[in-house]
Amino acid sequence: MTGAHLVQETRGIGPESFEAFLGTREEPEWLRQARQEAWQILRETPKPGPEDEAWRRTDIRALSIEDLATVIVGDGLTSPEGMLQIVERQDDLAGGLLLFDSQPALRWVDEQLGRRGLIFTDLLTAVREHRDQVAPYLGHVVQPADGFFAAMNAAFWRNGVFLYVPRDLEIQFPLRAVIGLQKVPTDFSRILIVVEPGADVTFIDERLADDGIGAAFHTGIVEICLKENARLTYIALQNWGRYMWNFTHERASVDRDSTLDWVVVGMGAGVTKTFLEVDLVGHGATAYMSGVFFFDGQQHADYDTEQDHIAPHTKSDLLYKVALKDRARSVWQGMIRAHPGAQKTDAYQANRNLILSPHARADSIPGLEIMANDLRCTHGATVGQINQEELFYLMSRGLSRAAATRLIVEGFFAPVLDRIPVPDIRRQADAIIHRKLGILAEGDFSS
Amino acid sequence: MEDALIIQDLHVRVEGKPVLRGVDLTVRKGEIHALMGPNGSGKTTLAYVLMGHPAYSVDQGEVLWKGQNILELPPDERAHLGLFLAFQYPVAVPGVTVANFLRAALNERRKRLNPEDKGIPIPEFRKLLREKLALLGLEDSFAARYVNDGFSGGEKKRLEILQMAVLQPEMAILDETDSGLDIDGVRTVAEGINRIFNPNMGILLITHYQRILNYIKPHFVHVMYNGRVVASGGPDLALELEEKGYEWLREQFVEQPTS
Hints:
Chain A is of the alpha/beta class. Helix content of chain A is 22%, strand content 41%. By secondary structure, chain B is an alpha/beta fold.
């Protein structure tokens, strides 16, 4: 990293900052206009506070918006080998992309698939080269009016990932993107995924930063547009540094007879507030939302989920599993909404929390809003500790308390981790879980 | 005595209430002892105390094994000394497969014996597991199931014996391993136990019924009543009990007032 430095930096979201930001961009008029509109909404939207229902349990008063570096021009930044290796050309990937400190450091896509119309590139390149595939969707699934951080991202986003899968293309191997941070203390990235009718794809979205980056800031948007009879397996691994602020708005629109399998693995960041929503807009649409979360130290994570059944005969199934140790805190607020006319809705949500330390805390708040009458909606939420009988049973077979605890925590996560079809991600998640447990166990684990 | 489990004057309270009131019992390696008695006589409490369940507090007495009083040791250290408890009500551990659990237990033991140990090689473990599964008439797919999660009563008891077969303890306490099994189940489990039993191993077989003793021949039979071992004898004692029932004990050993 020698020689890397930031040559320009402007802070805050005021008019001068926004002008300065636009001045650094060479972008088409339609995008410039979208940014202007988003910025206007941002100006009219107050920073969320404890009086907002969605923010009651996540306090961000310590975050100073005026001090955020919204405009950054870097020079001589080079990405670490480790991040490059994850996405470099390999047989079991269909494409790779590394955005490092907002710069595309590596991007490739399988040539044959590329010739058949698959697009996998950074969002800025996509805006320039694939306007027809980008413009109709960008900012339409997640809109600036969705919230303060959605508006902020829509005004100030720097770069992101664009995945476009053309009609009927079924892709065997996953596409994998890493958004990595090291020197630049703020990240405004967004992901746009468009899957055309009949297509089938697996996408891996990894967010990486070392703890050493300190109190960095990320606000992200994920937009997913899944058309008729298509299938997307979306695996997100959030492994930001443990002092980072992390805010995202993520929404998938799932059309007729399509299936979304959305697995979220959340391990990093200091303070997280995430909105994850599926809109089941077409007859027969299905969404699975799975989550594995493990927080320790002082980490705070707040997940706000919505399963919106808009069309009839739609199905959604959410299972979020959370383990907490030390003084970590999690919040899950889940809403199943069956809109008028969404008959034959089949919706389920479950949130299971495992508390490993006396000062850790989990809030679990399920919710139903039912505006149709012929449907099935169920939910379950539990907060519990390690079962002492399980512990005794395992210890009676010679496992130390630490090893028994580890096995129980692994078992707790296993049903969700088993849904991850990519072995490498599964291994990474396991490794992070072991590391987090390792501190608890005073090095008593065998690996 | 290095090769005997010696229980001396053991007094145990559960939630303040005395349950064991001075148990004396010695089980040597190479011997099978049946411990019988009516419900509530303290048999399961004794089993849990021997394995170190944290909910039981010992007021008095000792349990000697391999030259030390094991009552102060946590359950895992007792296991590493060769003690094993087959649970009356085995506990479900969701998400943990039988194979992973057994491998973790084996590796933990190897590591205690030799801190440098890298764990049992996977092929070797697979072979061992397959062999032991066959011993108990279990399918290979059994190993991929989550421990006791959704198991029938019979499957749970078989898993207990499978664990015993893999871990090869020197002193096994089998707590009502026959309960909840149909007659075929009792026979299968008993045959498994008989094949595992060897001169370097002692068994304390806790049972309410005489039934399992048709398949496993004990060298000694003890009767527990009201927190004490009140009678000991040879295999004939079990038959006598079967004939007379536990009511007979109530007449013989009227509860003595606690001082």
